[in-house]
Amino acid sequence: MTAEQHARASGSARITQIAGDQINYAPGAGPAPRAGLGLPEAPPVLVGRDGPAEELTALLADGGPTVAVVSGLAGVGKSALAVATAHRAAELGWFGDRVFFLRLRGYAPGGGVSGPEAVREMLRQLGIRDTDVPESQDGRAALYRGLLAEYAGAGQRVLIVADDAGEVAQVRDLVPAHPGHRLLVTSRHRLVHRDFAARVVPLGELAPGPAAELLAGAVLRTWPQDPRPAAEPAALAEVAAQCGRLPLALTVAGALLAGDPGLPVTELAAQLADARTRLSTLDSELDDGVRAAFDLSYGRLPEDQGRVFRLLTVNPGPDCSTMYAVLLTGEVSSVLRPKLAALVRASLLAEEPVGSGRWRMHDLVRLYARERGEECAEQDGREAAVGTLLGYLVVQAEVARHVLGLDVPPASGPGLPSMEEARNWLGAERALLVAAVGFAIESGRPEAAVELGTRLMSYLQIYRYGQDELTVARRLLTAVEDRGSAEEVGGRLYDLGLALLGVDEPEEAESSLTRALAVFREKSLRMLEGKALNQLGSVYAATERWAEAEQLKLEALQILREEGIRHAEGTVLSGLARIYEQAGRLDDAITAMRQSAALMKALDDPHREVSALNSLADVLWRAGRLEESAAVRERAVDTHRGFGNRRQAAPMLSALAGSLVELGRDQDAKRRYEEALDVVVEEGDLHRQGMILGNLGLLHGRAERLEQAHELLERACALLAEVGDPSSEAAFSSALALTLHALDRHAEAADVFERAAALHAELGDPEQEAVARAAAADLRRRAARPRRGRRRS
User: Cys-Cys link to 112, which of 5, 106, 636, 679 (CB 3.0-4.6 A)?
Assistant: First the structure.
């Protein structure tokens, strides 16, 4: 006899035999069976969840896994997704009315529904009266399995949605034995356990567009005619970003706007801009706001995991590597990693990408964890962790600066990282390093801010991270303005002016540099005076005041030569060369740029030597000395290989390839473009990929390798469309159309010419639009002509 057998007795009484024990339910002994589909109402619109909804629907289909768990951060929309998907499955007829819903309240402060209580509730929903429920836990579980087996025997599938489970024990006994039934669980934890086999569907925050759409919808459901969402789209996007694109936070923000119809979205954005008060702003009057939701998750953490959770926020960057987590907590990696993994399972942390050893908190979770960390600062040793982190970053930044030769001769030797290791460290931790300068000031450590910031400035400038350079410069000025000497303030004003010039803000740069110059002159700091005059000259050049720019740079050159500051002398010469070039004094420009490059080489500064060589190549090309220009570019590329600034590599290689094309050296050009393509693919620069692919396509077309040209040009056009460069896309589209024409694919060529025409129209170029449309029309006529004289295959 099988473990479970079922029969119908006369009068519709039911008999269930479980492992030899027979239980009789007489007619009328229990309540009428409840109707299934006891689901909450589905959300009117499930915004931004098409992918997860499709995945989850597929899991509920016949042949999918028995158990699926939707996991994610509190307020991320797990229940909404599960309920909407369950409704969809019912609409598809997969479960009929046999859909049941359990609220497990797994994170409730007083404790959630236990596993045995969950089984008892399911028996109620399946129509079993309380007085007929077996006394023992095993008996109830067996009866539950037996009832589900009845459905399976009748060819009927059952779906159970168990919402807000806090642990595997709450849902383990709900797992159906029959593979046709489904248990769909939502939980803040991933519920991974050796005896609980489930497919996990992790749910993250919304993408920017859907987040703004959800926020707007929360307002418009109350006030359908509210003009604010349409009138203030930028502010709406800003509020969505400040909410971390978390659905719960977005609905709270939407309620704030709906509750105050006169509140501009820009004003709410301003309120949320202050990270220190953001969570308070997003508290709900109904005690179900963001902080309250996080409280429930945090309250479940063991103390050792809670300490790690709090201390991770000492790291001010967007993520934290395992190495820094070890520094902050004082724990060895083998002990720490399981705690980090536990925080991931609790959806309070994420390893991105998986296996990288880099850990990220959601923005709002980070704010919450910092609040808790400040409350527990003494017991966690938070102040010591801050000092340890900042001290380590200062030392490592100084090491990297010396290894890469940033304003100092390159250093190498035992105990030092390689150039590649130093560059990779700076690249991986750049966001952390920039944030740490501000964090040091907030933490009452302005000296550490200055030590770290000054070591970063050359790297950010040379590697062209202009906005980061500006951020650090502003913070450095803040660090010394109220407590530093006049010389320190002047130095930080100079750095700020240089950074402003780098992001094309010449008016602000002029103001900052003029103030710095006044300080240097008052204190008779001749070297700094010369450097400030040089940069002011660059400001004048940027605003096309050429005569004034030349005068200032010549003054700077004289001072710096008198002081013997050869490095700065090379920088001045480079700037003078650009002024001479603008004036058409190409021989003077070439001479000055050669001197600059020679100085940088003598000073062992390959970064600025390469910059000078590239500028020299530009001037030589303009002067018609094409072979010499290409040779200088080759020299720049060779010099660059010594330190490998990949941000500089692609434009250098592309410029060299372009020169080689003009000289008719197509094969050499092709090799350089391919080398540049490897760089931009690795860097993920889609725009440069499109441009290089297009140029490679043109080269293949010139060599009559039409199929290769077609493939490359098609890829280029797709990438340029993706990044939104209609001008380049139009140019390469015309080349693609001509290639298709040469391949005798006239109809396709006509379609591409029409695309080019539309792009020219968008760019306001009616002449080129007309040319492209005429070409398309001509090709359509050709395509329509009957082909003659061709033998059928």
Answer: 106
Q: What is the pLDDT of residues 286-302, one digit of tens each?
A: 556 899 999 999 999 99
User: Which pLDDT score is estimated for 793?
Assistant: 34
Burial 599-637 (b: 16+ CB within 10 A, else e): bbbebebbbbbbbbbbbbbbbbbeeebeeebbebbbbbb
Angstrom distance (rounded) from CA 692 to CA 697: 8
Pull the structure tokens for residue 352. 């991105």
β-pair partners for 243 = none
Which contiguous run of DSSP H or E holds residue 4?
strand 4-8
CA–CA gap between residue 658 and residue 542 (Å, rounded): 26
Task: Sheet containing 182-187: give its strands across.
Answer: 99-103, 159-165, 182-187, 67-72, 199-203
The structure tokens listed for 423 are 């560059």
Question: What confidence tens digit (pLDDT) does each residue in 115-143 have?
Answer: 999 999 999 999 999 889 998 999 999 99
Q: State how far the Cα of 621 lies from the Cα of 636, in Å rounded to an integer.
A: 15
> E-assigned strands of 284-427?
320-321, 350-351, 358-360
Residue 36 confidence (pLDDT) above 80: no
Q: How far apart are CA 94 and CA 63, in angstroms?
A: 12
**Cα–Cα distance measured from residue 222 to residue 47, given in angstroms and rounded to the nearest whole number:** 17
Which residues are 161's β-sheet partners? 101, 184
Angstrom distance (rounded) from CA 601 to CA 126: 84
- H or E element, residue 185: strand 182-187
Preceding peptide of 414 cis, ω within 30°? no
| pLDDT tens figures, 465-498 | 999 999 999 999 999 988 889 999 999 999 999 9
> How far lies 292's CA from each of 278, 370, 432, 601, in Å?
14, 15, 29, 61
Whether the pTM exceeds 0.85: the reply is no
- pLDDT given at position 285: 63
| Sheet with 358-360, side-by-side order of all strands | 320-321, 358-360, 350-351
Does position 785 have pLDDT exceeding 50, yes or no?
A: yes
Cα 672 versus chain centre, distance = 31
Give the containing element (helix H, strand E) for 750. Answer: helix 746-762
What's the mean pLDDT when you consider all of the chain? Answer: 91
| Stretch (H or E) spanning 15 | strand 14-18
pLDDT value at residue 287:
57
What is the model's pLDDT at position 289?
Answer: 83
